[in-house]
Amino acid sequence: MGEGINGDGRLAAAPYGHWVLLSPAGGSPRPSARYKHAAEVIQDKLYVVGGSRNGRSLSDVQVFDFRTFTWLALNPTRDSNRLNHETNATGGSFPALAGHSLVKWKNNLVVVAGNTRSTSSSNKVSVWLIDVETNSWSAVDTYGKVPTARGGQSVSLFGCRLLMFGGEDNKRRLLNDLHILDLETMMWEEVKTAKGGPAPRYDHSAAVYADQYLLIFGGSSHSTCFNDLYLLDLQTMEWSQPDTQGAHIAPRSGHAGTMIDENWYIVGGGDNASGSTDTIVMDASKFVWSVVTSVSARDPLACEGLTLCSTTVDGDKFLISFGGYNGKYSNEIFVLKLKARNLVQPRLLQSPAAAAAAASVTAAYAVITATDEKTRDIVATDDFDIKKARPASSSKKFVAEIDAVNGEKDKLESRLAEVRDENSKLKDKVDLANLSYSELAKELESVQNQLAAEGSRCQKLESQIAAARKRLESAGSLENELEVLRRQISQVGQTMATTQRQKSGGVWNWVAGSAEASDDE
């Protein structure tokens, strides 16, 4: 890491390609050290919102002015004209947040999701606006299918819409869902994408490229960290996992990233064992990773939960990092002055076969161009005039060379035609494969629906079988009771018969006794 820049210095004096500590002007108070905060740059000012320190979420809004090199606590007031329907326990103070996301839109900082002490009974994602011009904040009512509350998600701006992916909910369940918030209508929409997307994760990074693609990198589950890269086509809503080239990138979570033109810069993060020491960049037009610079293992930048922003000063582009945790909380600002990178024609979503065909065509064109230039040089030579030259061995040699060059050109043109034909065939095969894949996907979906229906039927049958078993058990019990009743009835019958016989004998005895008494008289 290079030498620091103090309050009397200028960003323009920073060296290229190395992180430099930026020290505030003398006497300027520093904000509390923190991590899992959010930050954005607006008009030469770095806004830092919330964060966590020692297990406690923070509610402050801090601003660093790059013109004066001073910190200032913003203390925004609540906008009474934009009160939402939920009761906010924080009253007029901005809520304490950690693990949230921050996006600049118009004159506002849009704060989305995160872990908060707010006693919201809905358990849904909250959205706040901070107006940097009026120094006020408001909690916003949102509509539609509002997502589950979460932290560690990614939020990216796409026109006037926010793309929110993944995170971890309040029950520590990992998510890989995608939601879109229209900032004009404040309407949420859950997006159903084709299968093959990222596994559930949190503390990853995301970026929008070329107003058409959403990139997802890294993050972690509860047991492992990732270094995978996923791409979502925002027109077809289909996921893909492009092959990357260049430097090997270690798994990481809790890192921060920012997109500048076609270059996606990422700093910090870790793998639960150590912090990531390298600052990396991916050329999103070619999916090529490279390392910008590295720091030591105990450097404040080799940490988790930091933020990364960018700004332009005097024509130079800078990366700006703040905060983080690597065993110690940080409240330092580091800047990195970027070198100019070559612009290339994007080649997103190019298959290996198409890439090989394109390379063959490019090589053929290069050879043909070189051959044409060589031919033109021969013909345009001042010392050679084919009409005025006398028959000589040298002129015959040149004519033979021209004929050879033309022959070579014909062969290359023939080869180019073959390459084009091959490319066309490959395209037909790709189209056929896509069609076959689409049909297979439909068939798979049909089979899955059938399996789901059969599963539902099985559950109903199991319920009916269980009910029948209960009835059978009940029937067995009834048989036992009936047998007992039969025995009791039999016993009662026997008792009544015995009693009847006894009663009959007694009457005749009485009659006989009465007769004897009459005779005696």
UniProtKB/TrEMBL annotation:
Domain Acyl-CoA-binding: 400-502
Entry annotated with the keyword Coiled coil: yes
Coiled coil regions in record: 402-495
High-level lineage: Eukaryota, Viridiplantae, Streptophyta, Embryophyta, Tracheophyta
Pfam family, one: ACBP4_C
Name of the molecule in the record: Acyl-CoA-binding domain-containing protein
Signal peptide: none
Record's keyword terms, sorted: Coiled coil, Kelch repeat, Repeat
Organism of provenance: Urochloa decumbens
